[in-house]
Amino acid sequence: MKQLVTRGIVLGRTDFGEADRIITLLTPDQGKLRLMARGVRRAKSKLAGGIELFSVSDITFIRGRGEIGTLISSRLQTHYGRIVRDITRVQLGYELLKQLDRAVEDEPEPEYFALLEQALAALDDPAIDLELIRLWFEASLLRLAGHAPNLSTDVAGNKLAADQTYNFDFDNMTFAPHTSGGFTADYIKVLRLLFGKHTPAELQKVQGIKTLLAAITPLVRSMLTSFIQV
Amino acid sequence: MAQILLIEPDRRLAETYAQALQTDGHRVRSAAGAQAAISAADAATPDLIILELQLVEHSGIEFLYELRSYTDWQHIPVIVHTQVPPGEFDGSRGLLEDELGVRSYLYKPRTSLRRLLAETRQLTAVTT
Amino acid sequence: MAQKTTPVLSQQLLLSVAEELKLPLLQIAREAERGELGGQTDVQSIRVAADSALRLLDNYALGVRLALEPAAELMPESVSVSSILYDTGQQLDALAKSYGVALELNIGGRFGPVLAHRQGLQAALVSLGAALIEALPAQDSPQLKLQLATHRSRYGIVAGLYANTKLLSNEALRRGRALQHRSRQPLLDLTHTSGAGIFVADAILQAMRLNLRASRHHRLYGLGTVLQPSKQIQLV
Question: Under CATH, what is the fold of the domain B3-127?
């Protein structure tokens, strides 16, 4: 049986039997893996230290006949240790892991691995606002799933105008002009930033971002619940 | 009579809770922080740990990770007794319960001494 | 008069104060309950906790009033730093005893009067002192001594509170201010609470155009503020 080597981020862990654990990992090249870590709960096992929550590990494993493979060895590569110091960051970290676990299929999708790595790095930085991280993550999930809104033209195909107000058309995932619409050019600008490929650290630097993000949060949440099963 | 490890950073609160637990028949060791708590557990393996999540220098979660990495301490039941409102932790209850072996989450402002003592009795009756 | 949002008027600080108030109220409630359950209630500790809560509220309210006062009316006066530190020690004595922290006064040396708003400066130092008294024993290596001291620096006369622990640098204080309301414990390495006492002191000093800064006093580390000598002869 061939031993395979990759990098993984733990999405979840379930105890199994007396001393074993089934670990779900996201990898860049093998998709989502479910691996049995035998004896990891029994002793100060060699496996235990190398497979922590909120970290990236180098792992060696063997594919099983069924859904679950076997973890042979693991080594911590990057541990985002500052997350566990702050309870509210732990909370969000755990929620993001669960969200990603639900959103991702088993096929290899390196973009999701990169997204999760960026999310953990952002959570590890106490200066980056938690709500910003959450909203950025949700927008990224939509973008990767191909459900980003149209932020260039309106329902009629006209360029979005700076002096126009809009409502959002969920069916077409695009803005529709309306004299008393709830969205102005400022909101559209911040949506462009959010759905662009910026990191949370870059978004944090934008002046007034917090207030603008708070205003568009309900919109992004609605998009997410409509299109992605989270 | 159980050996309790009380991890409480506020000295005044620690005295109050420790005295109440002692009156209820338990032996109590107190520690203000994570490192002191590990030393205290080393000196006398507790039957139960009562833990404030909001500590100085290291969080209660960090402490729990460290605790569970030691074979002898993997099964010690933990009551989280904390200033952190449960609503802030709802999404991570799986983390606390499944990953870190927390049996009960008590929010300090709404948990009477009676309740804390009752939960302690319940969890130590099982283990001792 | 247009109201600017100053630190003391910020929602972050108000939230911080609200969180911090839970502690003395919890101390009172549980100690009283211990009495009900047949233990012996420590009435003195209940009184100390109640005073602690009142002090925090009072200092916060003072900070708000100072921030709302037109700048022209916030007149500093000639005050003796030593006497302010002495009074600070008196006010903190009961709290320090209840936490097992020894208060030391180090006001030797001849310092002339300084210019300051007496009430504000006193409130800031008391607020700071109370926060440190509660935080010091909670460290992983508990510290049980707090020194109230003054010394001359090249910037002016420093009045501050010091302990034998590397609690803070200016950078950590800046990070703490930035993380208020973003992190549950913005001063993670210093306190298990919301740090309200320190931020209230910070806000009061800012309302008086003074700054809370990290400071060294001999081999001790702490927090203090720099005051300018008064040229007036009369002392308050």
Answer: Rossmann fold (3.40.50)
**Structural domain range at position A90:** 1-126
A49 inside 8 A of chain B by CB:
yes
CB A183 within 8 A of CB A160: no
**For the packed helices A185-195 and A130-144, what is the interaxial angle rounded to 10 degrees?**
70
ipTM of model: 0.91
Q: Are strands B3-7 and B27-31 parallel, antiparallel or unpaired?
A: parallel
Q: What is the pLDDT of residues B11-61, one digit of tens each?
A: 999 999 999 999 999 999 999 999 999 999 999 999 999 999 999 888 899
Residue from B39, A85, B32, B53 nearest C144 by CA: B32
Q: What CATH architecture does domain C7-229 belong to?
A: 2-Layer Sandwich (3.30)
CB-based contact, A87 to chain C, within 8 Å = yes
> Which site among C20, C30, C48, C194 would you substitute to test the B interface, given the most B Cβ atoms closer than 10 Å to its Cβ?
C30
- C100 torsion bin: left (phi>0), alpha (psi -120 to 50), beta (else): left
DSSP β-ladder status, B48-51 and B3-7: parallel
Nearest-Cα distance to chain B for A84, in Å, is 6
Tokens 């208060």 belong to residue: C103
